[in-house]
Amino acid sequence: MKAAFFDFFNIPKPEFTEILADNLSSSAVAAFFTISATCVIGPIFEEIVFRGILYKRIVQSRVGPLGAIVLPSIIFSLAHLQYSEPLIFIFIFISGCLLSWIRHITGNLWYSIALHCFWNSLVFIDIAYFD
């Protein structure tokens, strides 16, 4: 999936994919912490910050719901500076908008957390087993 995205747009794969693969093969402990950080801890933290704290403050401001969807998504994209390709930033921005929109329409942070964990898990599986 992610590999297909990179291949389709002829984007070089980020260096972190090699680091991730090395962590998975180095030891069970390294693999456990890599999987935990990538698929659970990271997404939960990001959702609390971007769709929890930032969204809540922005939606109550004059900017309203649209700003609460777009502004945290821009910051979310910038937080992923390990990617150097513009198309990846666009994809992350759109993903951030989708997660924010889900947060907005459900009024519940758990749905965006679940989707983010699921998405990162799919990308992780793709990197780990199909690259």
Task: Write a structural description.
- It is built from 6 helices and no strands.
- The protein has one domain.
- 82% of the residues lie in helices and 0% in strands.
- It starts with a helix and ends with a helix.
- It is mostly helical.
- It has helices at residues 2-8, 16-26, 28-59, 64-78, 86-106, 109-130.
- Residues 31-121 form the CAAX prenyl protease 2/Lysostaphin resistance protein A-like domain.
- It comes from Salinimonas marina.
Profile the largest sheet. Answer: none
- The assigned structural class equals mainly alpha
Mean pLDDT: 87
Strand content: under 5%
Count, helices: 6
Write down how many β-strands occur, each being a DSSP E stretch of 2 or more residues.
0
Rg calc: 16 Å
Tertiary shape: globular
What ranges have pLDDT less than 50 throughout 5 or more consecutive residues? none
Report, as a whole number of angstroms, the end-to-end distance: 10 Å
How many structurally independent domains?
Answer: 1
Structural key phrases:
131 residues; mainly alpha; 6 helices
Topology:
Layout: H1 2-8, H2 16-26, H3 28-59, H4 64-78, H5 86-106, H6 109-130
Helix pairs in contact: 2-3, 3-4, 3-6, 4-5, 5-6
InterPro entries: CAAX_protease, Rce1/LyrA-like_dom
GO molecular function: endopeptidase activity; metallopeptidase activity
Domain CAAX prenyl protease 2/Lysostaphin resistance protein A-like: 31-121
